Amino acid sequence: MSINMPLRQEQVQRKIHFPDVAGILKARTGLSLGRLLDLFLFSVLLSLVLLYQFQLLTEWMPRVFRLREVLYFYLYLKIILFYRVRLNYNLLFIFAFLSYCLVVAAHTYFLHGGGLAIQGLMRFVNVAMLAPLAAVLFTNLKQVKFFIGIWLSVFALGAASGVYQMLGGELEWLVQDYLAMRAGLVRYKTLLGEPNVGGMASVIVYGYTLFSVRSWIRKAFLMAAVLILFLLSLSKAAVGGLLLATLIVLAFEYKALFTRSFLKKIMVLGLIMLLAASLVVGKSAGLRESLVSYTKAIFTTFVPFADSRGTDNDIVNDLLYRVFGTTMAGMELAREHSEFYAMNVLMGSSFGLAGSAAQDFLGPENTILPHNSFLEVYLVGGIFMILIFIVMILLALYKLLYLSFLNPYYKGLFVAMVMITGYMFSYSNIYDPITGGFFWLIVGVAANSQLNRNVTAG
Predict the structure, then answer these.
(1) Residue 214's closest CA among 420, 407, 29?
(2) 197 pLDDT band (50/70/90 cuts)?
(3) 186 φ/ψ angles, rounded to the nearest 5 degrees
């Protein structure tokens, strides 16, 4: 026994000690290995939501994107079982909105069957389900900036895809048979989607970058991408949004309007955007020759009296039609197709009345494409749902405005939120992967008690 004892001690001493990876990561990040994994999977999920256009690349690519549903299921299950969710009014109204979507789906199933109920529900909540994850998983501002950075990276890819096509490159898998013109000029479809999405995204990034990006290198890069997508979109929504965003920025910075440092920043950003414009124009003779017609096209469609001949397609008439014209048409259609219209006013007419899913199943003659997020929410969910939706937005705006006085980073989020909300009167941002992705991320950030408490305390 005495001979074997030293050998056993030596064997014990020779045991391999593996490093405590979880402990090291927690010491460096302050987060457990499980939470880091959840944040990583959330980043993969967000990337799949934003890069939805890649489903067109090959026939088997849509199967890859089904991973979104798997990731949603896993992350929500993880939150329900292992996370302590701090409820507040913002988060309660987010859950109320998602829960009412289930009510609308049940109503749709009763009227039109399971196929339309599932497709309508998935279209409404596929992007909206990002909000509760952002409200629970984020613990500090660095994580918020990282996920916004993912969105900005996709935005930059969208600008690059537009420039590539402008220079003669072909993206047949993306463009397919899509063709849009305005005043004889081509409107480019990009990785962000149809031209209006790129135009709206450029305004969102414009407002965000001015307040929330500190690095001048990143500012220059993003502003160049903003100008590229703004020009290539030929979008009336982009022109109107740019003016509104500028007014909001000036309202925030009115005290610094005539200070030397503010004027220097404006001059530098102006030179950067001028340089980006000259590079784009210099690479395309067609674009250089059509700058005058481009300016005229935008001006005459934006200002009703700019053209002596007049136009029915200016931004004022377009906005009036989408706010009032489609509203009246949608209400009339709902009245014609329901024997219980009074109940539909309160509870909605189901996913079978409005949206592309309804048109796919029931045909365009019995449905409507509102091009108005607020109207679509009302038509499918009634007064109950639209009230939930509006209160949710107002709570998020109030929270972001309050936080913007504590941390200037939130000014950029507030401006972006205002712009996306404004665009909802003329576009279905609520489930658009790009503009809707940014919207629901911000709504989730506004509902994050732990994150915002730290900002308040700081």
Answers:
(1) 407
(2) very high
(3) -80, 135
290 and 234 share one domain: yes
Q: Between 141-166 and 435-446, two packed helices, what is the crossing angle to 10 degrees?
A: 170
Asked if residue 304 has pLDDT above 50, the reply is no
State phi, psi for 368 to the nearest 5 degrees: -145, 145
- Evaluate whether residue 14 is within a structural domain: no
Going by the DSSP 8-state scheme, the letter that residue 127 receives in this structure is T
Which pTM was predicted?
0.86
Are residue 383 and residue 446 in the same domain, yes or no?
yes
Q: What six digits make up the tokens of 3?
A: 């001979």
pLDDT, tens only, 405-439: 999 899 999 999 999 999 998 888 999 999 999 99
Alpha-carbon radius of gyration of the chain:
25
- The strand pairing partners of 185, in sequence order, are 182
Q: Same structural domain for residues 175 and 260?
A: yes
Q: Rounded CA gap, 53 and 162, in Å?
A: 14
Residues written for the chain: 458
For residue 63, the enclosing domain spans 20-83
pLDDT value of position 92: 97
pLDDT digits (tens, 9 = 90+) for 86-98: 899 999 999 999 9
8 A C-beta contact, residue 71 and residue 175: no
Residues forming a β-bridge with 193:
190
- Out of 83, 108, 134, a domain closes at 83
